[in-house]
Write a structure and sequence with these properties.
about 65% helix, mainly alpha
Length: about 140
C-alpha cells in the first residue's frame, strides 16, 4: 500500500474543498429544523440577491439542470416562499421573486449562515477574518 505524503494532501484545492464540505455539513445540521434542504436554501439565498432573475439564469448560477430547478421552485412556490411572474418582454420567460412570507425565513437563514461562518472562523484573529472577507468579496467580483 502506498503512503500519501501529508504535504500532498494539504494543497489549496484540497483545503478549500474540505472547508466548504465541513461548512455545508455544519449549516445542514443547524438548519435541519427548518424543513428546507440545502438546495432549497441555495435557491432562496440566490433569489434574495437577484430577485427577478429568470429560471434559466438561476439554474446556471446554481450549476444545476433547469428541470431540477423547476422541481425546487415548484416546492418553494407551493410553500408560498417563491412566486413566478411572466416576463413583460418575453412570454416564454418566468421571473422569480421571494414572497413576503419568505422574508422572515431569510432572516433565519442569515442567522444560521452567520453562526456557521463564526464557527468556521473561530480562533482566527481579526486580521485573518478581514483577509478572508476581502478574498470572498474579490471572488464574487470575478
Amino acid at each position: 500500500m502506498r503512503t500519501i505524503s501529508p504535504m500532498k494532501q494539504l494543497t489549496f484545492g484540497f483545503l478549500l474543498h474540505e472547508t466548504a464540505r465541513l461548512m455545508r455539513r455544519d449549516f445542514e445540521r443547524r438548519s435541519r429544523t427548518s424543513g428546507l434542504t440545502r438546495a432549497q436554501w441555495a435557491v432562496l439565498a440566490n433569489l434574495e440577491r437577484t430577485e427577478g432573475t429568470s429560471q434559466a439564469a438561476l439554474a446556471d448560477v446554481l450549476d444545476i439542470e433547469p428541470i431540477t430547478l423547476v422541481r425546487l421552485i415548484d416546492r418553494l412556490e407551493s410553500a408560498g416562499w417563491v412566486e413566478r411572474r411572466p416576463d413583460p418582454d418575453d412570454r416564454r420567460v418566468r421571473r422569480l421573486y421571494l414572497t413576503a412570507t419568505a422574508r422572515p425565513l431569510m432572516e433565519q437563514f442569515h442567522e444560521l449562515a452567520a453562526a456557521t461562518r463564526e464557527a468556521a472562523l473561530a480562533g482566527l484573529s481579526q486580521f485573518f477574518r478581514s483577509r478572508y472577507q476581502l478574498q470572498v468579496d474579490l471572488a464574487r467580483c470575478r
